[in-house]
Amino acid sequence: MKLHYKILWIDDQIEDYIDMGIKDEFESYIEMLGFIPTVECFENGTVAEQSINTKKYDLILSDYNIEGANEQGDVLIQKIRDGGVFTEVLFYSAQPDFDTIAKNLYRDRVSFFSLIGDESFKGFKEKVFKLVDHTVSKLQELNSIRGLVMSETSELDNTVEEILFSFLSKGSEGSEKLKAYICESVLESAKGNLKKADKFCEQDIFDIVKSRLFDADKKSRAINKLIEIIGTKEEQFQKFYERYKVDVLDTRNDLAHAKSDTIDGIDYLIITRKGEEEPVKFNQEKCIQIRQNLRKHSSLLKEIRELILK
């Protein structure tokens, strides 16, 4: 599971769809679901086939009559399936007999849509939205969303470390203030293990940032202190720690120990907080919120990194 959702789209008149804003609508819908959208467009089936062989896509859209694939899409999809790629595929066509053709072209994970009638483009978009929902729904089980959170928060941890290391390496008055803050916070929490804590500040900057004593919570607090030190007043950077803790750290901790249960036909996460079990609805809205929060903080950390590199 990942935050990126990729569509491959094959049509020799793809510019017409782009001009109608349909590609933008697909990207907006995917963003609304909390993903980072990529819609790669090709006018030639042979070129698209090369991309399919080297990249992983979540959905393939294709005009049935395409250039570079012996003129018919079923030849292309057979090549794709023979290559071990079982991505969901939607074929569409404006030819009058396409419904009949489709009935004789059953393939696993392949759908068809006839672009005939005044409302055909509206129906086409709705069909794509449903297929996106279908592919996403497979990824929303507890284990999948847990894997997403663990993977993405690890990336956020790495970014936090890179930011702190870059700022601490400056050797400025501000970096010395931040180092003093980090040492103070680690020493305060490590009073029960003074042997390790006593020599903490004697380590080089890299070892300080990587130390187990300097955990994820302290690192996010240090980012909050860094923002204070550099003196930026922009709204999106204020109360960084409070927001990061709720959206990222608490979510990771909850999912790491959560179990799932169904109560009255509704899926719940059973989260243990302060020794008590608390049921939280685990549905599409919850998954979207988690993905959106991860994207938000990833973007915010990139902005902070750019600020200190100026």
- Number of alpha- plus pi-helical segments: 13
**Alpha-beta classification:** alpha/beta
Number of strands: 8
Instruction: Bin the helical content.
Output: 55-70%
Question: What are the segments in which pLDDT stays under 50 over at least 5 consecutive residues?
Answer: none
Q: Which sequence of SSEs, written as H and E, runs from N to C?
A: EHHEHEHEHEHHHHHHHEEEH
Q: Sketch the major β-sheet.
A: 5 strands, parallel
Task: Domain count, please report it.
Answer: 2
| Overall pLDDT level | 85
The outline comes out as: elongated
Q: Provide the β-strand percentage band.
A: 15-25%
Please state the CA-atom Rg, rounded to the nearest Å: 25 Å
Q: Taking strands numbered 1, 2, ... along the chain, how are they ordered across the largest sheet?
A: 2-1-3-4-5
Instruction: Kindly report how far apart the N and C termini lie.
Output: 34 Å
Please give a handful of descriptors for the protein shown.
single chain, 310 residues, alpha/beta, Rossmann fold, 2 domains, five-stranded parallel β-sheet, three-stranded antiparallel β-sheet, 13 helices, 56% helix, elongated
Task: Describe the model.
This protein is an alpha/beta fold and 310 residues long. It has helices at 14-19, 22-32, 45-54, 73-82, 98-103, 120-137, 142-168, 173-189, 194-198, 205-210, 216-230, 240-257, 284-309, and strands at 4-10, 36-42, 59-63, 88-93, 110-114, 259-263, 266-273, 276-281. The chain has a 5-stranded parallel beta sheet. A hairpin with a 2-residue loop joins strand 6 (259-263) and strand 7. Helix 3 (45-54) packs parallel to helix 4, helix 7 (142-168) packs across helix 11 and helix 7 (142-168) runs antiparallel to helix 12 (240-257). The longest helix has 27 residues, at 142-168. The radius of gyration is 25 Å and the shape is elongated.
